[in-house]
Amino acid sequence: MPSPEEASTSGSSPELQEEAISVPAVPATFKSLGLIDPLLEALEQMKFKAPTDIQAEVLPHALQGRDIIGVASTGSGKTAAFALPILQKLWDDPKGLFACVIAPTRELAFQITQQFESIGSAMGVRCVTIIGGVDIQPQKIALAKKPHVVVATPGRLLEHLEETKGFSLRNLKFLVLDEADRLLDMDFGPKLDKILKLIPKERTTYLFSATMTTKVAKLQRASLSNPVRVEVNSKYSTVSTLLQYYLLMPLPQKDVHLIYLANTLAQNSMIIFTRTVHDAQRLSIMLRSLGFPAIPLHGQLSQSARLGALGKFKAGGRSILVATDVASRGLDIPSVDIIINYDIPTHSKDYIHRVGRTARAGRSGKSITLVTQYDVELVLRIEQVIGKKMELWAVDKEEVALLRERVDEAGRLAATEIKEQGIKGGHGKKRKRGGDEGGGGKDDMDRDDDVVEAGMPKMMKKSKARR
């Protein structure tokens, strides 16, 4: 970690001076950090015994009213780090539309809302989730009641700000950009610029992420004022309790090796990450036809189906979740034993977010990445970024050979079922009509579709070939 002097000058400008803060040596408690009794009571009920590093670092500065840039590994308690100071300030000055949290994906927005409601339970805090993919009318009614906290994806929030009568964030006190690097890196940029013009400049702003870009222009866009930079991990890292493996095979044998892993690791809960919607759907059908309790999660499912898939997986009703990168960011699923990368992500930080779904909160976990002859360079790049070498996962070649015929048959059945159901390929257009779209074509403003989430160029969006 750089010294405070180095960190405060690297990439900074006269307009944006950052302070770098080191991790405290003396263990802090939530009470010693200055939190009020209603929050302490809620934290005790939630069994939060002691603040994490990011919470211990952020809270003193946040409670002083400073803008924050927070960088910490996934699973480190970032949500509570920004929720606690906001709720404490809300207790002192209770007002409607007090804070707005912007997140890149709908599932993450729901999760943030749940955490705000849990921590603010003793205060009677009112939150609303504003996302695309669901009917817009109930959201308009909820916003008219002036909730304390609005948690939103950028597209739907902008739609409400521009078109919902009587709704504005003119009196907003707090703005949070969660997974800020994703919000700033993707084509959310123009929407964020419009949102920032519609909210007051006199506010407190927090940027949080596991992997933070330090480009001054992007941080200035968020209009931070003399922020404190809190960094409790190296820029890109995976946790020490995660065991990382790779499995080498020819491209045509990818499916059979995946089924081999599912078979040998059948007693574990796992998330299988794919690059395309088509593969997520196809592999979930294949796994189910071979007797595995699998369920898909991707951006072309309706929002209720997406939440239903997450709910079943969290509750243990399904032990295998086959997902695109919609599920890679920020989601806290308590007990995921194994992450399998069916496709290697093109961006190293997406790999870090994927494998961060396991080995959370001090628990151990494993990740296994399927590597074909075309993927070696990507693996070497990831190893260089994380500073670790992946170990080779041992395979029983005879057992793989025995599975080949059944897997090929399951693959043919899956292809037929997808064709019969008319399921779009990995990069098809979103539905233009449907009961839960709520905003028609405007719903596309929420760019959490899988192509962008996987870091793939937009020009490839219509290609149906599996990479």
TrEMBL record:
Region (Disordered): 418-467
CDD domains: DEADc_DDX47, SF2_C_DEAD
Protein name listed in UniProt: ATP-dependent rRNA helicase RRP3
UniProt main location, coarse: nucleus
Location of the DEAD-box RNA helicase Q domain: 28-56
Basic and acidic residues composition bias: residue spans: 434-445
Any GO CC annotation of this UniProt entry: nucleus
